[in-house]
Amino acid sequence: MRRTFALAVLLVIASASARAQESVSVHLALGNPSGATTGTRDRDNFLMVKPQFVLSYDDEKGGANWVSWHLEKSDIGKVNRGDFHPDADLPADFKHIKRADYTHSGFDRGHLCNSKDRTKNKTNNDATFNMTNMMPQAPDNNQGPWEQLESYCRTLVSSGNELYIIAGGTGSGGTGSNGGVTTTIANGHVTVPSQTWKVIIVLPAGDDDLGRIDKNTRAIAVCMPNRQGIKKKDWREFVTTIRNVEAATGYDFLSELPKRIQNAIETRVDAEGTTPAGVDPCR
Question: Could you read off the pLDDT of 156-195 as tens digits, one per residue?
């Protein structure tokens, strides 16, 4: 009886600790998009809270459902680029994807939380090279409009802003440099998304971020096809609404904001966008 009671107490403490860890992470200030948990039975929506970013891991598809991070000027420095490695924080019985699993696949090891967003020190940069922070990206996607948007985000930060960014992939079946539609790589262990998406909230640098977000706060959302042939495309051609990304993914991105503010932000297309009227790039 005592052992049972002690075990129950430990489980309660562990659960409370996990909730506390989640609640204090700046990277989840806008909410937990998929309601991910730290329970190891939640294998398709496993929450991993790191100092550099937070992610939901899907063991079935061998990658993240989404990665969420806060970006400010102090995060950006000059440390050298790290190297890809399995994520040691994954439970032992989960898939531990390796660098070699992407070799000769025709797809890049595409960062979700970008390496250059974490160049303050080696520890932070190395964290972005965890394979849980990668998704199979068509080279023309990763090195084209996706990279353009990453650079644009850092331009916004250098201009006096701070950002909340959430990124991921959806669907199945991309086209890489090997040609043809590919649904999985690594002998079926890693799903290739058909689209890559990103949601960005832009704020002037300051304090009390949630309290400062209002219906006029700038929001950028994109859906990009995960295929070759788009390297020369401008990221602005893939701008959409957050609401459209939510419909494509099933996630709720701004759950910590009041509904009236969510409705205003999530249904507005960013002014930089050049997507033709009536076109939803998430479809």
Answer: 999 999 999 999 999 999 999 999 999 999 999 999 999 9
pLDDT mean over 31-60 = 98
Catalytic residue ranges? 111
Q: Quickly list DSSP for the chain.
A: -HHHHHHHHHHHHHHHHHHHHHHH-GGGTT--TT--BS-TT-TTSEEEE-SS-EEEEETTTTEEEEEEEEE-GGG---PPP---B--TTS-TTS----GGGGTTSSSEEEESS-GGGG-SSHHHHHHTTBGGGEEEE-HHHHTTHHHHHHHHHHHHHHTTEEEEEEEEEESS-EE-TT-SEESEETTTTEEPPSEEEEEEEEEES-S-HHHH--TT-EEEEEEEE-SSS-TTS-GGGGEE-HHHHHHHH---TTTTS-HHHHHHHHTPPPTT--PPTT--TT-
Q: What is the pTM of this model?
A: 0.92
* CATH entry, 2-266, from 3.40.50.300, 3.40.570.10, 1.20.840.10, 3.30.1370.60: 3.40.570.10
